Amino acid sequence: MHQTIITLSTGEEIHTKAPEQQILEHITNNQGMMNKAFVVIGGIHIATAHIVKIESIEQVDEFENPNQVEQAEESEYSDPEEQANADVSPNQVELVEQVLLEAMQTRDIFAMDMLMHDDFVFINHEGSYVTKEMDLEAHRTLAVRYTKVSSTDQQIKPTKDGAVTISRIHLEGQAGDEKINGDFIYTRVWQLIGEQYQVIAGHCSML
User: Fold this and answer.
1) Are strands 116-123 and 196-206 parallel, antiparallel or unpaired?
2) Segment 182-198, tens digit of pLDDT
3) Domain spans of the chain?
4) From edge to edge, which strands make up the β-sheet containing 45-58?
5) What's the CATH number for 88-207?
6) Residue 202 in contact with residue 188, Cβ under 8 Å?
């Protein structure tokens, strides 16, 4: 798996699983983020710093094993119809789900941006409608801060071009002035867009 390291003028390094091209697109949008990045100081305050370098490195995936690599190589020569049926992989969905949870805990905005579809919509435990930009903005501004995000009892239901995941997730952190410490049931709808799984809809309920 690739990892991207963003070096800031402050000397700080930001590690993200988002690809370099995704980051470049993100920081050169029309929101005044050209050549700047958010820096969390002491977990509370946000400042900005100039980006001096972006580089990609090859990272060994802890979930990868030689059998998986061999299967990937063999798939290049498999029957097209068989390959189409194998596009939806529960293992891949489980992996991107875990990457998303890690991004929520570490405030990896780039990874969240990569994994969320532009038309993403989420209904939270209070029944509020949350769009992709609303979700990302909450993490950017520290309106929502998670110190622990862990998943148990996950179910994956493959669909024609993606999967539905149902997970029990324990959250600790803070939303505004309100403390978060509890268990939630999350349902997410993942869709295979090209070669990338993205979540297009989700819902959570508090237990």
Assistant:
1) parallel
2) 999 999 999 998 888 99
3) 88-207
4) 13-16, 2-8, 45-58, 36-41
5) 3.10.450.50
6) yes
